[in-house]
Design brief:
The complex is a heterodimer of chains A (476) and B (485). Chain A is of the alpha/beta class and 476 residues long. Chain A folds into two domains: 2-91 and 410-475, Urease, subunit C, domain 1 (Roll); 94-323 and 333-399, Alpha-Beta Barrel (TIM Barrel). Chain A has helices spanning 2-7, 12-23, 109-113, 116-119, 151-158, 187-190, 215-240, 253-263, 275-288, 300-309, 335-343, 347-354, 368-380, 385-392, 394-399, 451-458, 471-475, and strands at residues 38-47, 53-62, 65-70, 80-83, 88-91, 93-98, 161-166, 177-181, 191-199, 267-272, 292-296, 314-317, 358-361, 417-420, 431-436, 439-442, 466-467. In chain A, the strands form two sheets. In chain A, strands 1, 2, 3, 4, 5, 14, 15, 16 and 17 form a nine-stranded mixed β-sheet that branches. In chain A, helix 7 crosses helix 8 and helix 10 (300-309) packs parallel to helix 12. Chain A is globular, with a radius of gyration of 24 Å. In chain B, a hairpin with a 2-residue loop joins strand 15 (408-413) and strand 16 (416-420). Classes of the chains: A alpha/beta (476), B alpha/beta (485). At the A-B interface, helix 7, helix 9 and helix 11 of A face helix 10 of B.
């Protein structure tokens, strides 16, 4: 129990005592046996994420899902109740691209296949052409490498993020990204969708001596991989029905895997930050006939119309461009760079205006506080706050192919919710509770060193969950 | 060393791209344009004093001294000025996103410049300001067979997909000599040097690639023939991005532009090309071309050279500034190229040097940067001279373009003004102001950020310290006690 309490700040002392009383030292995988599975947030302002706002309503959570939401909802007797007076309930936020929960590159498989090559530049590892499959490991799945002891999981969750897309890095096909919810006892509990997207990078990895060492080489290589995958998809059934006629097909893990991904219309993430990259990615998407989503999107303000015309979704990086910290103060800066730095935060508004579906991702920001702060910058220059919220919730879920199960507060959706004491995009607003898969986390400003003691002396805050029924009933 | 007489260079470099996009291209769209009172250097039909050019729908509609303009025509008065065909640079590396070399492998023909065109490269605008309208964008010279290349028009302000010269055949870069054999590169310890390391190895690499491509073509031809005959159970060959362009070379659908210096290796490539049934469209640099001008002329290849730039490496020592003139006299179609974004800004002067070195006529000198590169790139039916029906790609100079005092006033592509010196100068103060304003805004924001971080950090820390103080003393007391034990 102690370990679990350290790991998750479960809702206050009452809940904690009850669990202790109920299940003793037993471990459960999803908390089914003892952890409260029924909650109700009552008298709260509920921003459902799909447009409707309920000024004084109730959300009922049951066994990980949203059971009911509305203005006149009967709270079931088994539910723990949070008085939401003065509080707002939002769908849990989605960070559509981070390395949260992923191992650092050193020591991971990507070190051998991706950028690690450049460091260990020995002849045997240097790719001599596309056939050596440089920086290619699409069979890696982030879900299989999750490190749930990543401290940032709690940091992100405390800031209101319930879900992230864990994107492997390193190489041209670094591996498949996994959509995870930020709570669970084991790594497997976190995984919402193991093979959610196939990220691609155009960053040359050859380091001068190996292939590819140019942008055009990277693109040519990826084109060859799609050629090979299409060939395999075409050749395999022909071979299987004529095994005595043809030489057997060689085994190539990459082309087989990509062939299946293309066939299943798996989402391919293509890098596209400035306008030139965006238009290039739009052309390559047509050429390669892939189900693409662009990531970057920060110069979308120049080419929003072209993106909209292709109905291309975009993951917008919230790591807005800044002048390099150690840049030469006397170095000439071009007007184009200055304009980009000035206007990048206006991209989301431009995309919204053009009708492009987009989501936000942290893109390497080191604290979740910066994520929301940078989203506010987009709101400050014209993005409607509800559009900003959609980019963190319902639109992110739809783009990532899970709109049927998360992203909004509606019956049957995964109970990923946050309860705040104000408007999400107000700097002063604090997140009070976070629900991940229906598990309640109470958020403290600064986690107290001794939780139980603190709570006893201070008394419970008004928004802590209380049983409607007496504690005696719980004992049964 | 290369002479860089830059009396006429226009200073633009401090402004980023886009800054002139508002000016670019749209001004005279679709309305007929008349350029009047100019000295017109037609290249193919002599010079016309006090002449006019009528432009309609992006094409040259009439040229002469008695051109009637319809109502609504926009008039550009070029009194005392010179109009020449837009300059064509047969060897350029501008407008490329990322490296121009995929240098890791000996045959990098899968790499394609067309994939990485960058319309925001300021060099496009700089070169427009030198009267250049068309450029042959080449892959670098790191490989015996390099990447695919493309001819573009310098349509500044447009998207990458608007740059390619529609109808121009794509090309491929070959390279001979020191660069592909990596004479000047030493790999770090543990990395094997790349093959080839000799000129014979370069020849062998090219030959091997074409043998492979010939076999690849045969596989596809067999497959397509059997399929056409109704055979259903066929295993298709793999598509090979490296070999496809080489097949196109053998089929005459793609031009070879070969970087080269020495006479012996040039003759080698002519033999290899004959063996596989293609022609080298241009020998690039070709500094020893004067030694074998007759053989190059007989092969039907063009020569695209520097005016007077040599001795920058061993294989470039045996060069003479008479190269362009000598090859021209022996019947080779010769162009003078830049291979450099800055040099491209004064190709008119580079051409003029062949009048001093070799005595070319003024018209033949101008041909080196207009009609001849157009012929070399297979686009002379469209550009390269001022003739009715050709694209209205024009450069207007204030003096004879063969003079060092000549400065470009306007550059037109497809009848649209893409560079206008007067408007450029007029726009500079506003652009400079915008730049200073943005810098000031950034500075203010960063100062505000610093200011907001400080007062927040301090009051938070102070009470913390107060609180911690007794704790700290307890801890230290405990530590002392512990230590005492």
């Amino acid at each position: 129990m102690q370990d679990r309490f350290k790991f998750r700040q479960v809702c206050g002392v009452f809940v904690g005592l009850c669990i202790a009383g109920l299940i003793g030292s037993a471990y459960s995988t999803r908390g089914d046996e003892g952890e409260p599975r029924y909650f109700a947030v009552v008298n709260a302002r509920i921003v459902t994420g799909t447009g409707a706002v309920i000024d004084n309503g109730t959300v009922v959570i049951a066994k990980g899902l949203i059971q009911t939401v509305g203005a006149n909802v009967t709270v079931p007797p088994e539910a723990w109740v949070i008085d939401g007076k003065g509080l707002t309930v939002y769908p849990g936020l989605i960070d559509a691209g981070t390395d949260l929960g992923l191992p650092k590159e050193e020591g991971s498989e990507s070190a051998a296949t991706g950028r690690g090559r450049r460091r260990a530049a020995s002849s045997g590892e240097i790719a001599k052409g596309p056939e050596d499959r440089p920086g290619t490991s699409p069979w890696r799945v982030a879900a299989d490498e999750l490190k749930t002891d990543d401290k940032r999981i709690e940091t992100w969750r405390n800031a209101g993020f319930t879900t992230t897309l864990a994107v492997p890095d390193g190489g041209l096909f670094p591996g498949q990204a996994t959509l995870i919810d930020l709570a669970g006892d084991r790594a497997g509990d976190y995984v919402v969708k193991a093979t959610a997207t196939l990220p691609i990078s155009f960053k040359p990895i050859g380091g001068f001596w190996g292939f590819p060492d140019s942008l055009m080489g990277s693109i040519a290589y990826i084109r060859q991989v799609f050629d090979d995958s299409n060939w395999y998809a075409q050749a395999e059934p022909i071979y299987e029905s004529n095994v005595t006629k043809f030489e057997r097909l060689p085994y190539d893990r990459t082309e087989r895997l990509i062939a299946r991904g293309v066939h299943d219309k798996e989402i391919v993430l293509l890098p596209a930050n400035n306008s030139v990259q965006i238009l290039r990615a739009l052309r390559l998407t047509d050429e390669w006939k892939i189900n693409a989503v662009l990531y970057g999107g920060q110069q979308g303000y120049e080419v929003a119309g072209a993106i909209a015309a292709k109905k291309m979704p975009v993951l917008v990086s919230l790591k807005w461009p800044e002048r390099e910290k150690d840049a030469d103060p006397d170095a000439e800066q071009t007007l184009r760079e200055l304009r980009f730095r000035d206007r990048a935060p206006s991209s989301p508004a431009a995309l919204a205006k053009a009708g492009v579906k987009f989501a936000f991702y942290s893109g390497g920001l080191s604290t979740p506080k910066d994520i929301l702060k940078n989203a506010r910058k987009a709101v400050d220059v014209g993005l409607a706050p509800d559009a900003a919220l959609r980019a963190f919730t319902v639109d992110a879920a739809k783009i990532l192919g899970v709109g049927d199960r998360m992203g909004s507060i509606a019956q049957g959706k995964i109970a990923n919710l946050i309860v705040t004491d104000g408007d999400l995009f107000n700097e002063k607003t604090k997140v009070k509770h976070v629900f991940v898969d229906g598990r309640c986390f109470e958020i403290h400003e600064e986690p107290p060193a001794e939780k139980t003691g603190d709570h006893k002396s201070d008394g419970p805050p008004s928004s802590q969950p209380r049983r409607l029924a007496s504690e005696a009933e719980v004992g049964r | 060393m290369k002479v860089r007489a830059l009396l006429a260079v226009i200073l633009l470099a401090t402004f980023g791209p886009k800054c002139v996009r508002a000016q670019g291209s749209s001004t005279l769209a679709n309305k007929p344009i008349l350029i009047q009172n100019a000295t017109i250097l037609t290249i193919t039909h002599g010079n016309i004093e006090h002449g006019s050019i009528l432009i309609r729908d992006g094409k040259i509609a009439a040229v002469g001294t008695d051109v009637k303009a319809p109502d609504g025509t926009t008039v550009i008065d070029a009194n005392g000025q010179y109009v020449m065909p837009g300059i064509i640079d047969c060897h350029s590396h501008i407008a490329v996103d990322g490296s121009v070399n995929e240098g890791s492998i000996s045959v990098s023909s899968m790499a394609n410049i067309a994939d990485v065109l960058n319309p925001d490269d300021i060099s496009i605008y700089d070169d427009l300001a030198g009267g250049v309208t068309t450029a042959n964008i080449l892959h670098g010279s790191a490989n015996p067979i390099g990447g695919q290349t493309i001819v573009i028009k310098l349509r500044w302000g447009k998207q990458a997909s608007d740059l390619p010269f529609q109808g121009a055949l794509p090309g491929i870069k070959f390279a001979l000599g020191e660069n592909p054999k990596r004479s000047n590169f030493t790999p770090p310890p543990g990395v094997e040097p790349r093959y080839p390391a000799t000129r014979m190895g370069v020849e062998e690499t090219i030959r091997e690639a074409f043998i492979e491509a010939r076999e690849y073509k045969k596989q596809w031809d067999d497959y397509n023939r059997k399929k056409a005959a109704g055979d259903q159970n066929l295993l298709p060959p793999r598509r090979n991005e490296k070999l496809e362009p080489l097949v196109e070379v053998m089929e005459g659908k793609r031009y070879v532009h070969a970087h080269c210096y020495r006479a012996d290796e040039i003759l080698m490539l002519i033999r290899v090309a004959n063996e596989f049934g293609f022609k080298v469209r241009t020998f690039q640099h070709v500094l020893e071309g004067y030694k074998i001008a007759d053989e190059i002329a007989a092969s039907g290849s063009g020569g695209s050279t520097f005016s007077d730039w040599w001795a920058y490496k061993m294989e470039a020592f045996d060069a003479i500034p008479y190269n362009a003139a000598v090859m021209t006299e022996r019947g080779v179609v010769v162009s003078v190229n830049s291979d450099d974004a800055e040099e491209a800004r004064h190709l008119n002067q580079e051409a003029a040097k062949s009048m001093k070195y070799g005595g070319l006529s003024a018209n033949d000198a101008l041909k080196l940067v207009t009609l001849n590169p157009a012929i070399q790139l297979g686009i002379d039916n469209r550009v390269g001279s001022i003739e009715v029906g050709k694209d209205a790609d024009l450069a207007i100079f204030n003096h004879d373009p063969l003079s060092v005092y000549a400065v470009v006033q306007k550059t037109l592509i497809d009848g649209q003004v893409y560079f206008d010196r007067e408007k450029d100068i007029a726009a500079r103060p506003a652009l400079e102001k915008e730049k200073q304003d943005l810098l000031a805004k950034e500075k203010k924001a960063s100062e505000e950020k610093k200011a907001s971080e400080k007062p927040e950090a301090n009051p938070e820390k102070k009470p913390d310290q107060k609180k911690k103080h007794p704790q700290a003393s307890e801890d230290s007391a405990a530590a002392v006690a512990g230590g005492g034990r």
